[in-house]
Amino acid sequence: MTNSTNSWMRKARWSVTAAAAALVVAGTAVAPAAASAPVQPAVAVAQRGHVDSAALLKALEGLPDDYVRGAMVRVTGQEGRWRGAAGEWTAPVDSEFAIGSITKLFTSAMALQLVGEGRLSLDDTVQELLPGLLPASYEPITVGQLLSHTSGLQKPRCARPGTPVEVVTSAVSCDAPTAPGTVVRYNGINTFIVGLVIEEVTGRPYGEELRDRIVRPLGLRHTSLPADDWAWAEGGIVSRASDLERFFTALTRGRLLRPAERGLLFTTPAIQGADFSYGGLMRWEVPGGGPVVWGKTGSNRGYTSGIFATPDLRRVVVYSTLPTGADAKEETIRVKQIASAGFAGA
User: Fold this and answer.
1) 49 — pLDDT class (breaks 50, 70, 90)
2) What is the pLDDT of residues 283-303, one digit of tens each?
3) Where is the signal peptide (predicted)?
4) Which of 22, 52, 56, 92 has a beta carbon 3.0–4.6 Å from 207's, enabling a disulfide?
5) Nearest partner of 235 among 80, 88, 97, judged by Cα
6) Helix residue ranges, H only, the chain
7) Which contacts (CB < 8 Å, 24+ apart) does range 318-321 have?
8) Are the C-beta atoms of residues 106 and 112 closer than 8 Å to each other?
9) Helix (H, G, I), strand (E, B) or coil at 60
10) What local confidence, expressed as pLDDT, does residue 281 receive?
């Protein structure tokens, strides 16, 4: 980590294109399912008996509606399997879609791998690793604070598309941060910075690290990083439900991480309201007395999606929806209903 400021800035300015070009795996960015006549849910019968098919069908019925045009759900785990789709989700259930901020889990996993290798520490600061990226007036921000969304950076009101460096510098061009480590504020700029840290520490483009550390070892043949998506390490990946399930299972079972770093997946900062772990996982208590699950949501290219699982992986739920854009609050309620149905009876 002795590279000069100019060195990491040169690498970062071409990292979006180079990362995507280096990630030579099957799958390209896809557009949302085209509008068509509504279809009824297509269902695979639950196996081994504990998946609540009726709850899932009820959650999907009536699509398209005013807030969600279509959706798919895939449930796996020790308790059974189920998959279905409704409304304008006319592609197969296990088709590719833009996963948005679920990308953050891939980025966080690579950062924790570097921690396990002794090449990075959660206590390392952005200012030490990437000198000159943040304004000189900013207090030191640690890698751990970036991963857990406690960096104090404000939501990126001023962010504009561009290279990762341009995204970060535009995002911090207005709105002073709060003190690092004092509040939780979900912010995609945190993960852009983690992506730059990965490139600086490894000396390689983000996409090459993604390919060699996660995609190829796990055989994720339908997971890719399109060259035309500026969301990059924060939200640019395209994948499909079965690949996400394989990744999440490998991540939480320790195939990708050493024991100490695996423990960080379910460790949140000692801050009131902290609901993101040092592995970037979001803690969610399923409404209506459901279980506490961990995972991540994401939105990009017309899809709003998520993957959540019980810590013991007895139930893993992947979903993706096609919101109409009519009302963000109502859309969120509808999507949560669909996600919650996957854990009915768990």
Assistant:
1) low
2) 999 999 999 999 999 999 999
3) 1-31
4) 22
5) 97
6) 5-13, 15-22, 53-60, 103-116, 126-129, 143-147, 164-171, 188-202, 206-210, 216-218, 232-235, 241-253, 259-264, 328-341
7) 318/73, 318/74, 318/241, 318/244, 318/245, 319/71, 319/72, 319/73, 319/74, 320/71, 320/72, 320/89, 320/97, 320/241, 321/68, 321/70, 321/71
8) no
9) helix
10) 97
Residue 21 pLDDT greater than 80, yes or no: no
Specify the length of the chain in residues.
346
Question: Domain containing 62 — which CATH number?
Answer: 3.30.450
Q: Residue 81 domain-assigned?
A: yes
Domain range for residue 63?
Answer: 40-95+281-346
88 and 166 in a single domain? The answer is: no
203 and 106 within one domain: yes
Q: Among all chains, which residue has been given the structure tokens 């690290």? A: 209
Last residue of a domain, one of 244, 270, 296: 270
The string of pLDDT tens digits covering residues 141-170 is 999 999 999 999 998 788 899 999 999 999
pLDDT for 50 equals: 82
Q: What angle do CA 102, 106, 107 make, to 5 degrees?
A: 105
Place of tokens 């990630």: 23
| Distance in angstroms (rounded) separating the CA atoms of residues 193 and 167 | 10
pLDDT at 79: 87
User: What is the sign, positive or negative, of the torsion defined by CA atoms of 22, 234, 228, 251?
Assistant: positive
pTM across the whole model: 0.89
Task: Identify whether residues 312 and 218 lie together within a single domain.
Answer: no
What tokens appear for 280 in the block?
A: 């970037």
Could you tell me if 231 and 122 lie in one domain?
Answer: yes
